[in-house]
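seq:
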Amino acid sequence: MNLTGLLAAAKPPPVVKRPGHRVTLSAMSPPPDFTALLRAVAVHADRDAFAVLFRHFAPRVKAWMLRSGSLEPAAEELAQETLLIVWRKAGLFDPARAGPATWIFAIARNLRIDAARRARHPDLPPDDPADDPIPPALPDALIAEAERNGRVRAAFDRLPADQAAVVHLAFFDDRPHAQIERALGIPLGTVKSRLRLAMGRMRSMLEDLC
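struct:
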């Protein structure tokens, strides 16, 4: 099944409509557990889990490709190819060696290198970037990353619901301010002020991590 078919088969995230047809989140939650999502893809070929991974990582990989010098069409194609490899090779992910984002962006980096190599030498056979080794993370680094992620989730949980909704849509769903304005039915200035207040609160709670 191709990427379009995989995403079409996945269920969209649930939303609820309030009076006046304003859309809001039914319950605010911390960032997804990407390790668990990768495991679900690897073990159960879970298309819903893959859809969550795609919605989060595809735009970020594309943005990274653009910052690295790729043109728009190539960045889009490489981002989709990265996530297709994630779908096919999720079983190779080892959380003891690297975090989910590190593993996915290593695939993206290797794809970009391979694409540049093929552009210079079109007759060379392509390599499979998912098979490239990722250096193992040190135990202290894994512990520190887990503690940092826990602190960020705890800080997010302490935000007021209206600020958490804006943060969730802006950072976890990667939506621009104009889409958040429409989704929550609030003025653009309110979106920006809530986001600014939320970031100030989280910075104060995570001051030692900044």
